[in-house]
Write a structure and sequence with these properties.
Chains A, B: Keywords: DNA-binding, Transcription, Transcription regulation. Two copies of one chain form a homodimer. By secondary structure, chain A is an alpha/beta fold. The first copy, chain A, contains 13 helices and eleven strands. The first copy, chain A, has three domains: 53 residues, Orthogonal Bundle (434 Repressor (Amino-terminal Domain)), CATH 1.10.260.40; 139 residues, Response regulator (Rossmann fold, 3-Layer(aba) Sandwich); 144 residues, Rossmann fold, CATH 3.40.50. Strand 2 of chain A pairs antiparallel with strand 2 of chain B. The structure holds a DNA duplex.
DNA sequence: TTGTAAGCGTTATCAC
DNA sequence: GTGATAACGCTTACAA
């Protein structure tokens, strides 16, 4: 392990003062070409990299942003973090990742406290900004200590949150139109000719669940009835789709179609149905939300809603950088969920059948 | 944005010297209970967090480790990074994540240069250690500039790599027995009664591909013939499984079974087969490697090899910490790939059929 | 037990 | 153009 070479030694080796080296490092014009050449050579020869730590002491900038998420294993988050890392790096920022793993089937007995602890580390580390992708803030009822800690954090360093705004939180929220996506998929199923439609997945007490479920119910209420036994909440994971669907299978007769809260849940549902020798979409149709990359390759290919989460992630970084640089924020951009019709909804199948019977 | 409070102001407010505050911060015993109490109160009141940056200047430690990977979207990597983040955080380390996105269908024309650039950032940021999960180092022929830069990096800060050792690289490697996994799955298919077995997926020129393919061929050669037309390399993603399988479908007759280089590729293959109304395992069996979490819920459930990548990730952190603290390394731990028999291989199906025909 | 002062590696502010 | 020197926030001898 070679000891790190410093600007002082470079200066000595080049026969100049540290200030001159510093000037060369920062591309200041007020250095003679001759000295600049000498210094550059020494820097190159010794492969000198100035210490960001020392620089940070002076500038009060670390060129680092922190990202908080609850499950790095979840494609919903990785799609976003991929964009954040990429765009951040383009702008000269590195990414400190904190993965609380409090989502889903977690073993933490106090997720709020876990996140608060992360906030402390973030302050210590003196990042320039923070992006929160999910966690405690997504709850209908947010822990008060958590909220206080979050506001305190936002007081020290700009915090951008991708999620539904909380009136008691001073952070900047990048909003997603959850209701619209749920309306789109529900309407699509109705328009495809299904009348009895169920809803599965989503953790109760989480805003995304409530909002999608509410939108589902509202949309349904215009055209048809929804019984509570056709709604099975659980969580956002594949095993939750499996368990919700399995429970629903005890209902007779089954709904014609199902709205799954996301593609993972949809996939779990397909698995549960297959175990009972039920086919999708022939025996029951499935539409879902949050287009995950694999959904296009499933059997059947999943009809779903693309929420364009990567776009939101990019906007989050942009706004955060504005906050960091005290620039004006971009005006709020519209967020358009998009329906992707594939196979699991059976729409095309039905259409073909209709055409066929029309011809007869 | 409140300006950050410093140790100096805490000292003034508490009516003591900065050293006393520092002592309290560092739990030094040589502070009177009285002063300690006063200082603690002020710290608490003002919610003071000492600056890691300033501390790092002195200690030359940032309590940060960097992780390099090529695709955060890939479950192969997220399983590992989840462990690294968790275990690292338990030990007081934060994680700087660099995602080069050079894997798979990348748009980078020079992945080696991309990684070299990341190395520079890592040195600047003065992390305490580095873990590399994949990238240029996985190639059969590693770029020489890259290798030089990597060795230089390892000269400044300890680097641990999860992957196959490279004799020209001075970093510490955590090795995985790729060959053994491939042997296990191949033998399993052979033992299940398949004779003509194909191999799909994996990027040519990548060690993991070569090693698994070689092990596959060797194992096969003991019991049966393998024709080159039954081998279709491509890459590690779902669309690669689809394309490889689609290509292979032009071969008549088809192999009885397929070894996929990982579960994603296997999933793509199932999709390609379904498009031709071919069933797995009835028409063709599939065995794969690298148990991804979803594989258990696919239709059919995927027979695969669990390489226990999370365990390797944990070992990598442990060894890295030893390196950081100049402690003795743990002795090399054995790594045991494990066969998970599910549905896609058709082993159970065949067994039942055999039993049935035995009874007749 | 406590305080003073030097020092960590850089940049910024002065003189020269 | 260039070079001393102070400053950033903290820790750590060394003194008292």
């Amino acid at each position: 392990m070679e000891p790190k070479i410093t600007i002082k030694e470079i200066a000595k080796l080049a026969g100049v003062s540290v200030s001159t080296v510093s000037r060369v490092l920062n591309e200041s014009p007020s250095v003679s070409d001759k000295k600049r050449a000498i210094v550059k050579k020494v820097i190159d020869d010794y492969n000198f990299q100035p210490s960001m730590v020392a620089r940070s002491m002076i500038s009060n900038k670390t060129h680092t942003i922190a990202v908080l998420l609850t499950d790095i294993t979840n494609p919903y988050f990785t799609a976003q973090i991929e964009q954040i890392e990429r765009y951040g790096r383009e702008q000269g920022y590195s990414l400190l990742m904190f993965n609380t793993m409090t989502a889903g089937h977690s073993n933490s007995d106090n997720p709020a406290a876990d996140e608060i602890k992360v906030f402390e580390t973030i302050i210590e580390k003196q990042v320039d900004g923070v992006i929160i992708l999910g966690g405690e803030i997504d709850r209908e009822k947010v822990d008060q200590d958590y909220l206080k800690a979050l506001n305190q954090l936002n007081d020290q360093v700009p915090v951008v949150i991708i999620g539904q705004p909380n009136p008691d939180c001073s952070c900047l929220f990048i909003e997603r139109d959850e209701a619209m996506g749920a309306r789109l998929i529900t309407t699509h199923l109705l328009a495809s000719g299904y009348h009895r439609i169920g809803f599965i997945g989503g953790e109760p007490g989480i805003k995304i669940t409530t909002q999608r479920l509410t939108a589902f119910k509202q949309t349904m209420s215009i055209y048809a009835e929804v019984s509570n036994s056709d709604i099975e909440l659980s969580d956002f994971y594949i095993q939750d789709g499996y368990s919700s669907m399995t429970t629903m299978l005890k209902t007779k007769p089954l709904p014609d179609a199902i709205v799954a809260i996301n593609d993972r849940v949809g996939q779990g549902a397909i698995r549960a149905l297959a175990d009972q020798h039920l086919r999708v979409p022939e025996d029951i149709a499935i539409g879902s939300c949050d287009a995950f990359p694999d959904a296009e390759w499933m059997v059947p290919r999943m009809t779903t809603i693309n929420q364009h989460n990567e776009v939101l992630a990019r906007i989050a970084v942009q706004q955060l950088l504005h906050l960091i640089n005290n620039e004006q924020l971009d005006s709020v951009q519209t967020h358009l969920p998009e329906l992707i019709i594939r196979e699991s909804c059976g729409a095309k199948l039905r259409h073909q059948q209709t055409e066929k019977s029309d011809n007869t």
